[in-house]
Structure formats: structure tokens, C-alpha cells
Specification:
about 725 residues, Immunoglobulin-like, about 20% strand
Length: about 725
């Protein structure tokens, strides 16, 4: 609502001439200067539905007379609010004559003085008038009731000689919009005061509330929805309309949005006058209260209630939450058969057009330019959201809202969704509403380029389109393997060149994966999930996944080599070498280890199987040589044993023959005994001849060769 400014206080010249004047002095109505001191008091009277105003005026003539002319004032004209009623003026002697003239932006009050006001004379008087409160939904900018009052405050007088005081009754608390007023809280009510430096430029709107006087209607709905409708006591129609609209609309709104009611305490919906809302039909104050215009507009009522969900906490973009609020309010009102206008496509060539990313809150609407700016912003934001919702459908919108509330990424991976790290602006909103697994919507792209983004920002859209196409190709190549956070993080942050580079790295890993799968399929093997897990959980790069893929290929190559060696024909020496070996066992164990993900063990076992087969021929040759040597040794042993047996047999025969010979020798005469050898060391000597004759024979002959007694004596 444009501010209504006070018209300047006008000091008119007196038209009448003095009836009697000296012949040398001609009377004249005085021109400026005229000094005015004005103390204004506004007293709010809820019981009478009006504000009572009193102006205490002191007018001093500072126009000096000349030798031929003297100047005077006989009327003081003051401009007051155009809504003023019961206007009267008086001084200490009583009522003064007034002339009232209604103008478009002010009311002129001419106060006739009791006598002419001459140079350096001061006339004091007061002007009283009322500012009556208008009926709800009337054209009057003033409301004064038991619960709420709003009115404009003007000031009069010269700089340094002007004061303004607003008196509120007990129970009322105030808010001042515009020029400031000092607030003093007293037992008999609040006092708001100012001594403006420029009185005729001073303007303030006072909004005063008496919370205890509002009519209250509680609305309790399922899901913890608790609303309290606060209406002016004199406006039962508004109270009924708002209560019934919220009772029927909020359940529908909640189902459309798909989120629980976010306010954990009573949410107050308070009746307000549009000018007090600075030109808006409603205002949502975080999750504490909603101010709704006295106008009976169900679309506005549901729009403001929807801001319980659609606010800066959900998406940090004015056009997003305002467009969502209007779209979903329109859907609710339309679904119950209400009168809600359809969205219309605004012209991007509108003089008030602005890229929605630059559409900011102006604070107040006080001129046509700001009104046009706001109107375009609201229309364009609604049109964009309407097109998006129509393109993606209700389910997709509900998923987007859920992700926004939980603050999870728009690019889902294999594990639990990661937390979104950046701002919840237009990029986040775009990513959430458009499914990356599906081809892009030309409808959404068009409204973003036309209404949302600046020409410089549309470069990001081109990069985004390319990157998301590459992302879909990566999803297809993955065949169920989802991109890791290493890729999804720059996609989420709209760092598309980095994301493109990393998707190239991912493609190389998937190509290795395909090689692994082909090699494993050829051998009837199934890789475990180690490589997939390393790929999908990559946070800082694909080094680990690449290493695993190469290990799997190496293990498969080793197992395949073992398989081919086992399947090959074997020569005699190899067969002999494998007589006590089972190369199939480590091969089978290698296959088991591969499918269990123990790649080092699988490669080691496969190598063992290959090595066993490869060394079998040498082992067989050694075994043949050893066998021949053993056979030869056995033969030699057999020959030696036979010879020994033969020798033993000969010896036994010899012994037997010796025994027989001994027996025969006993029967034959014994051989003469050989003469004894001379003792070693004895001197050789020759005895002298014994000339006495032969020696005598012995008395006994030695026994030899028998045991017969009395046998014949041996002859010598």
C-alpha cells in the first residue's frame, strides 16, 4: 500500500483589509513566514471504533510591517487525513469557525482566528477530529476494533517545534512501520512518541493488537495439526471462512505434499488488514503464526498455510517456495470446486520481468513499479512450478520433498543416501524433481532457461545436460552397478567437468569388470562382490577397484592355465610322475577361493596345480631311473646272495669232507712230525758227536689217531 503523506500545512493570506487604517499604512494579508508549533496526540478508542486526534497549534506571525503596510493573519489552514470526521476547532474562549474542504489526498481545515494575528503575535488553538475505523473489507485504510487497530500517523509544525504521541489502551501492543516512534510502556497503556526533524515528511503506520480480545477457533486435525484461528470479534464471516477452508484444505494439502505436518505446536492464523501487511495478502512468520488479509480469499488462506512446508528451510529460493505454495494451494482449491484462477504464462518481455534467481523480497509494496515487479515474480514462479509438477507428476514431487526434508542427495548410490552438502537452491530443486535415470524434460529445461536463470547461468544448464547424459550412459554400462560418491558428489555440486573426468575413470573400471566377467563365464566361475563393492564405495578414486580387477584377471588366468594343463594328454613319464600326486585338488581349491574372493590364495593354488603337472615328467624320469637302479641293486643282491649261498654250500661240503677225512686219518699211520722250528732268538749251535750210540727209546709212545689201548707201538 503506497504511503499516504500529509499535505503541507498551508498558511493562507487574509483577504480582508482593515476597515480603519492610518493614511500612511496600507493593511495586507501576510505572506510567509508563519511559525507553527503543533503537538499532535492520537488516542485509540476501540469501544468507539475510532482514533481521536487532537492538534495543539501555536501560530506566530513573523512577517514584519513596513512604513506603508502592515501584515496580518486571520485564518490558519491545516491539512489533515482525508478520512478525518467530526472536525472542530476551539480556543480558550470556545469554538472557532472552520471551513472544511475535501481533497483527494487530504482534508483542508481553515480555522478562523478571533482577531487578526499581527507581527510577533501568537494565536493558540486546537483542532480535534476522529479517524473512524472502516468496516472489514471496506475501502477505508483505517481499522479500529477491540482486537486490532491500524492507522497512519502524520505530524505538523516546524522543525524543532513538532511532536507526535500515540496513546494505546491497556492490553494493546504495537508495531510501527515507517518512521520510528519511541515506545514507553505504562500502566494505562503504551505511549509512542516522536519529535520529527522534518514533520511534513514524517509518516508511520501503527498496528496495535490486543491478543486477548481476538475471537478464537481451534482446529485439530489428524497428524498433529493444531491451528488456532484468531479473528476480529466484529468479523464473524472471516472467522467462519478461514476455519472451514483450513479444515477441508489442509488434509488435501498434506496428501499432495506427502510430508507430515512440520509444526509441533499451535499455529496461529490471525486476521490482518492488507495495508498493515505492506501490500501483501498474507504473511507466514516461520512456524509461529500466519497473518492473513481480511479479504475472503481461500486461495490466499491455503497458500499461506502451505508455507508451513514450503519455506526457506525446504528450498532456499524465494521463487521456489512461493511457486510451490501457489501451485499446491491452487490444486487444493480446484479439487474442492473452489473458484481459483488458472496459472497463465507470463511474457518474458514484460518490462517488469526479472530472472527468478534474482527475484528478491522488496520489503514493502509502496509504488507501481514495485507492485509490477512483485506481480511478475509471483506469476512467473507459479508458472515454472506448475510446468515442473505437470512434467514429473505428483509421486516424483513427493519424493523430491522427502529428500529435501531428509537432506539426502539427489544422486542415489548403492548404500544409504549421502547427506547433501551444498545449498538448497535452484540447482538442488532441479536435480530433485528431474529423475536422472530418465531422458531430460524439454518442458522443464525451457522454463528454467526462459524464467529462472540469467543468460550467464544457462551455460551451467548446457554442461548439466551433457554430464547427466554421460551419467545415464554410465548407469547403463554399469548394468546394475551404481556410480560411487566419487562421481555423484561433483554431480550434486554441479561441478560437471570434474564429474565427466571421473566418469571416464569409472568406464575404464567397468571395462575391466567386463573382462573379468567374460573370463569367469568361460570357466563357469562367479566372481564375488569385492570388485563391485570397491567400485560402488569409491570415495577418493578407483585405484582399489582397478587393483582388484587386475588381481581377478590374474587369478582367472592362473586357473585357466591349470585347467588347460589338467586337460592336456600325458606321456608315460608324466603319468609316472603324477602317480602319487593330485593336481586336481589345488585346482578345485583355487576355483573355490576365487569365488570366495581370496584372489591371492586362488592364484597360489592354481600355480601349485600347474607346477605339479609341469614337474611331473621330471619326477617320472627320476622315478624310472631310480626304479632301474633299484632293480639293478636288487639283482646284484640276488647274485651276491646266490654266490654267498654257493660259497656257504661249498664250505659246508668242505667241512663235511674234512670230517670224513679226519675219520679216515685216524685209521692210517700218522705222518711224521716235522721237526720243531728253533726258538726265535736262540743261537744256532752244533753239538759234538755222541759216540756212546743211539738213544734209548721212550717208555711211552704218544697217542694219535685213536683210542685203542694196548695197540702196537709206532715204528720210527
Amino acid at each position: 500500500m503506497p504511503r499516504r503523506r500529509a499535505a503541507p500545512l498551508i498558511a493562507l493570506l487574509a483577504a480582508a483589509l482593515l476597515a480603519i487604517a492610518p493614511s500612511t499604512a496600507r493593511p495586507a494579508s501576510a505572506a510567509e513566514p508563519l511559525r507553527l508549533a503543533v503537538d499532535a496526540t492520537y488516542t485509540v478508542a476501540p469501544a468507539d471504533a475510532r482514533v481521536r486526534v487532537r492538534l495543539e497549534v501555536a501560530a506566530t506571525n513573523l512577517k514584519p510591517s513596513t512604513a506603508t503596510t502592515f501584515f496580518f493573519y486571520d485564518e490558519i489552514i491545516v491539512g489533515i487525513q482525508p478520512e478525518a470526521a467530526r472536525i472542530r476547532a476551539s480556543d480558550t474562549a470556545g469554538r472557532l469557525v472552520t471551513v472544511i474542504r475535501r481533497r483527494e489526498t487530504y482534508t483542508s481545515v481553515g480555522v478562523s482566528l478571533r482577531s487578526r494575528l499581527l507581527y510577533r503575535q501568537t494565536a493558540s488553538f486546537e483542532i480535534r477530529f476522529d479517524l473512524p475505523g472502516g468496516e472489514p473489507r471496506s475501502t477505508s485504510p483505517i481499522r479500529v476494533g477491540e482486537a486490532f487497530a491500524t492507522f497512519g500517523v502524520w505530524a505538523w509544525g516546524d522543525s524543532g517545534r513538532s511532536s507526535v504521541e500515540v496513546r494505546l489502551p491497556p492490553g494493546f501492543e504495537s508495531q510501527v512501520i515507517g518512521d520510528s516512534l519511541e515506545v514507553e510502556k505504562r500502566e494505562d497503556g503504551w505511549r509512542l512518541r516522536a519529535e520529527p526533524a522534518e514533520p511534513y515528511a514524517f509518516y508511520a503506520i501503527v498496528d496495535a493488537d490486543n491478543a486477548a480480545a481476538y475471537g478464537r477457533t481451534r482446529i485439530s486435525l489428524g497428524g498433529g495439526v493444531e491451528l488456532v484461528v484468531l479473528a476480529w470479534p466484529e468479523d464473524g464471516v472471516w472467522q467462519t471462512t478461514v476455519a472451514t477452508t483450513l479444515e477441508s484444505g489442509l488434509p488435501l494439502l498434506r496428501d499432495l505434499i506427502g510430508l507430515d505436518w512440520p509444526v509441533l505446536h499451535d499455529l496461529e492464523v490471525r486476521e490482518r488488514y492488507t495495508p498493515a501487511l505492506e501490500g501483501y495478502a498474507g504473511v507466514f512468520y516461520t512456524d509461529e503464526s500466519i497473518d492473513v488479509s481480511e479479504e475472503l480469499d481461500p486461495l490466499v488462506i491455503v497458500h499461506e498455510a502451505s508455507h508451513a512446508w514450503f519455506n526457506n528451510d525446504l528450498f532456499a529460493g524465494r521463487w521456489i517456495y512461493e511457486g510451490l505454495a501457489q501451485e499446491y494451494a491452487w490444486r487444493v482449491i480446484s479439487s474442492v470446486g473452489g473458484d481459483a484462477p488458472n496459472p497463465t504464462r507470463p511474457s518474458p518481455d514484460d518490462p517488469a520481468a526479472v530472472a527468478l534467481t534474482d527475484w528478491s523480497h522488496p520489503g514493502v509494496i509502496r509504488d507501481q513499479e514495485t507492485e509490477a515487479y512483485e506481480r511478475y515474480g509471483y506469476d512467473a514462479s507459479w508458472w515454472v512450478v506448475h510446468e515442473i509438477a505437470a512434467a514429473v507428476g505428483d509421486d516424483r514431487m513427493r519424493r523430491a520433498f522427502d529428500s529435501a526434508v531428509r537432506n539426502t542427495t539427489a544422486y542415489l548410490g548403492a548404500g544409504a543416501p549421502e547427506q547433501h552438502l551444498g545449498p538448497d537452491g535452484f540447482a538442488r530443486f532441479y536435480d530433485l524433481v528431474e529423475d536422472v535415470t530418465q531422458p531430460p524434460s524439454e518442458r522443464i529445461d525451457e522454463v528454467f532457461r526462459t524464467y529462472v536463470m540469467t543468460p550467464a547461468q544457462t551455460v551451467l544448464l548446457d554442461a548439466r545436460t551433457e554430464a547427466r547424459a554421460a551419467y545415464r550412459e554410465l548407469l547403463s554400462a554399469g548394468a546394475g552397478w551404481l556410480p560411487p560418491w566419487y562421481i555423484r558428489r561433483p554431480m550434486e555440486a554441479w561441478q560437471f567437468p570434474q564429474a565427466m573426468d571421473r566418469m571416464g575413470e569409472a568406464t575404464a573400471v567397468l571395462e575391466l569388470r567386463d573382462e573379468v566377467d567374460a573370463a569367469a563365464d568361460a570357466q563357469g566361475l562367479q566372481p564375488d562382490g569385492t570388485l563391485r563393492s570397491a567400485y560402488e564405495s569409491a570415495g577418493g578414486g578407483f585405484e582399489a577397484a582397478t587393483a582388484i580387477a587386475r588381481q581377478e584377471l590374474a587369478a582367472l588366468a592362473g586357473i585357466d592355465e591349470a585347467r588347460r594343463r589338467l586337460a592336456a594328454e600325458r606321456d608315460l613319464l608324466t603319468t609316472i610322475g603324477l602317480l602319487d600326486a593330485t593336481p586336481e585338488a589345488p585346482y578345485d581349491e583355487a576355483r573355490t577361493a576365487f569365488e570366495a574372493g581370496d584372489l591371492e590364495l586362488a592364484l597360489s593354488l592354481a600355480a601349485t596345480s600347474v607346477a605339479t603337472i609341469a614337474g611331473a615328467q621330471a619326477v617320472g624320469q627320476e622315478r624310472v631311473v631310480l626304479g632301474a637302479a633299484v632293480a639293478a641293486g636288487v639283482l646284484l643282491l640276488l647274485l651276491a646272495a646266490a654266490l654267498l649261498l654257493r660259497l656257504r654250500r661249498r664250505r659246508r661240503l668242505a667241512l663235511e669232507r674234512a670230517a670224513i677225512g679226519a675219520a679216515i686219518g685216524a685209521a692210517a699211520p700218522p705222518e711224521p712230525a716235522a721237526p720243531p722250528e728253533p726258538a726265535a732268538g736262540e743261537p744256532y749251535a752244533t753239538l759234538a758227536a755222541d759216540r756212546s750210540g743211539p738213544p734209548e727209546p721212550s717208555a711211552e709212545a704218544p697217542f694219535e689217531g685213536g683210542d685203542q689201548e694196548g695197540g702196537p707201538a709206532a715204528e720210527r
